[in-house]
């Protein structure tokens, strides 16, 4: 039993210490330059097409949700008359 635990510790130590670290390019300076550029666009749309699509989807869902809330409030304020 002890032998198995010792073997497991060695394998775990070997895989952790010998794992290859992948180099990742630092894109922060490029992103900072893009977002600090004064081109008249709002900062929440400077990310490109995906930001614009996300913004429009969020606005559409917000408007639909607000409309549904108003509909339910009106429906609750004026209940249907029963015969």
From TrEMBL:
GO terms for cellular component: mitochondrial inner membrane; respiratory chain complex IV. This is Cytochrome c oxidase subunit 7A2, mitochondrial. InterPro entries: COX7a (IPR039297), Cyt_c_oxidase_su7a_sf (IPR036539), Cytc_oxidase_su7a_met (IPR003177). It comes from the Eukaryota. Belongs to the cytochrome c oxidase VIIa family. SUPFAM superfamilies: Mitochondrial cytochrome c oxidase subunit VIIa (SSF81419). The chain crosses the membrane at residues 53-74. The keyword Phosphoprotein does not apply. It is found in: Mitochondrion inner membrane. Pathway: Energy metabolism; oxidative phosphorylation. GO terms for molecular function: oxidoreductase activity. It is a single-pass membrane protein. Keywords: Acetylation, Membrane, Mitochondrion, Mitochondrion inner membrane, Oxidoreductase, Transit peptide, Transmembrane, Transmembrane helix.
